[in-house]
Structure formats: structure tokens, C-alpha cells
Write a structure and sequence with these properties.
Blueprint lengths: L8 H27 L6 H13 L11 H5 L5 H8 L5 H23 L5
Helix pairs in contact: 1-2, 1-5, 2-4, 2-5, 4-5
């Protein structure tokens, strides 16, 4: 029904979070491409993405830069434990390891000049 009626608040917030994450990843890709892999810690990038997607805040986050997001987060593990306190440590470790592999691979490609 929500699609027929033109969307819901949930849809709007989800779209904003997606747009924000893409903006942040684009900035991260630019940093890795122009300044190398040491310019941005992959764990920090993951922590920001977790905060964007799982925070219960409104839609104001789309105005924040990557740098301002970085000042708001701790480690990816701490962010995950904050958002999913009932999740066992082994599950968090597994998910973060998979995210680390994906983002690190992307960062490596971006640092080599591959825009995709």
C-alpha cells in the first residue's frame, strides 16, 4: 500500500540513509584514490556506515561530511555492539570481518584508480 500511496516516512528515511551512505562512500573513494589507503581507516568507514544505516535519528545526517561523521563514531565493533546489544560477539565478529573484506577490497581498487 505504501508504494501505491507514494511512500511512507520509513521509505523517505531509508532513501535518505542510502543517499547519505553513497555520498560518504564517494568521499571515501576519493580519499583512497587521491591520498592512498592510509588516508582513511577502513574500520572507521565501516563505523560511519553502521551509524548511518542503524541510527534511529531523523534525516539530518545527509548534511554531514565524512569528516564530521568520523568525529561521531568509535570503532566498527563498538558501533555494532551499540546498535545490536543482544547480538552475540561471534556474530558481530563474522559480520564485521565480511564488511572489512568488502570495503578493503573496494578501497584497494579505488587507490589504484579503479572508479568502480
Amino acid at each position: 500500500m505504501a508504494q501505491v500511496c507514494g511512500g511512507t516516512t520509513f521509505d523517505f528515511v531509508a532513501e535518505r540513509k542510502h543517499e547519505t551512505a553513497l555520498k560518504i562512500l564517494s568521499r571515501a573513494a576519493d580519499l583512497w584514490a587521491t591520498r592512498g589507503l592510509d588516508s582513511l581507516n577502513v574500520d572507521s568507514a565501516i563505523a560511519v556506515l553502521l551509524c548511518i544505516f542503524f541510527s534511529r535519528s531523523g534525516v539530518s545526517e545527509e548534511t554531514r561530511t565524512l569528516e564530521s561523521w568520523l568525529s561521531l563514531v568509535t570503532t566498527a565493533r563498538e558501533q555494532a555492539e551499540t546498535f545490536f546489544p543482544a547480538t552475540d560477539s561471534a556474530t558481530i565478529t563474522k559480520i564485521l570481518a565480511e564488511l572489512q573484506i568488502e570495503i578493503a577490497n573496494a578501497a584497494e581498487q579505488w587507490s589504484l584508480g579503479d572508479p568502480e
